[in-house]
Amino acid sequence: MKVLQVHNEYIHVGGEDAVVGAEKLLLISRDQQVVQFFVTNEHINNIIAKCKIGIVASYSKEAKNWLAEKITQNNAEIIHVHNFFPLLTPSIYDACHEARVPVVQTLHNYRIICTGALLMRSGKVCEQCIYGSPYQAVLYGCYRNSRLGSLAVARMIDYHRKRRTWQTKVDRFIALTHFAKDKFIEAGLPAEKISVKPNFYNYSGEDHRNGARKGALFVGRLSREKGIYTLLEAWQRLEIPLRIAGDGPLMSEVSQKGVSSIITLLGSIASNQVADEMLKALFLVMPSVWYEGFPMVLVEAFAHGLPVIASRLGSMAEIVEDGVTGLHFEAGNADDLAAKVKWMHEHPDECRRMGENARKVYEEKYTPERNYEMLMDIYQQAIDERKKRAD
Description:
This protein is of the alpha/beta class. The radius of gyration is 21 Å and the shape is globular. Helix 3 (61-74) packs parallel to helix 4 and helix 10 crosses helix 15. It has 17 helices and 14 strands. 43% of the residues are buried. The protein has two domains: 2-200 and 368-390, Glycogen Phosphorylase B (Rossmann fold, 3-Layer(aba) Sandwich); 216-365, Rossmann fold, CATH 3.40.50.2000. The longest helix has 23 residues, at 368-390. The chain has helices at 15-29, 47-56, 61-74, 92-99, 128-131, 136-140, 147-162, 165-168, 178-186, 228-235, 251-257, 271-280, 296-303, 314-319, 334-346, 348-365, 368-390, and strands at 2-9, 33-40, 78-83, 103-107, 120-121, 124-125, 172-175, 194-196, 216-219, 242-245, 263-267, 283-286, 308-311, 326-329.
């Protein structure tokens, strides 16, 4: 099978970019052919460029022609879109449709139904755009605190909602969790076209629970939606070592207020260093206050036999089973988080048992082998759907 991957890269490399690369390697390792069509946002660096992107955010004929040419050149059998925003736009689906090539779209975030892409506003979960007009986002400046930018994105959402792009131009969607699938269905996407396939993590290490472990670990972006304020507030009540790996807009604030004799700020570290930290920690803490998509850090933790204390919210509550592979706490509640951290620290045998369960779940659900089977099945469903429509 010849797969054409389509992706609008992010300026700062993140989880989505990593997933695209991992899926390419996964397919190639199984003798599938992969061609990539990528664009990057690095040239959107002045007001003129931003205005131009805002104008064509709903539909870019130029991007449609780019992809049409790529399809012709490579004779792709299936097209897998990861991110089309902002340069490619949903116009690319017309190129796929006109070429009669089946298309799969991974829903890494909520961009096609939410202007801010996170279903979050003012630090709290917000679902107003699921049930109402996307133009509500303009009032709040949901896209990067810009009303003008929010207008451009809201217009894109509204245009393709009315045009029924998601019902007629995409053969198969991939939601990363059942929770996310339900949210997209509530927003109007066809349930029969959405398959659930999690991300995967390639890890073959055997030493996933050996040696002395101690303290808590946080790995992620230092930003409001990741629950950094909840994390720091909870640790004002604790005397348990915490190591924080990551960078982001709150780095200076965390450096000034968070670092102490028990809190160590590691900054941005390489993936192999993250793995080392996971082998040393007693448990991972994930205090996000938004729904999350499919956080790779959870799968990495499971692979390393590390239980997780996670917010009882969205996909996190689905991936982490309370009392089995970790513990839940009320999102944004520092007292509850502190209580769960203290309990986990004081019950090392239970913590070890949850870690062993986490490793078993990884082996059952999140290995490359299992993911390849699911991905190929989804590709075949998309091909069959396109043939059925052609007939």
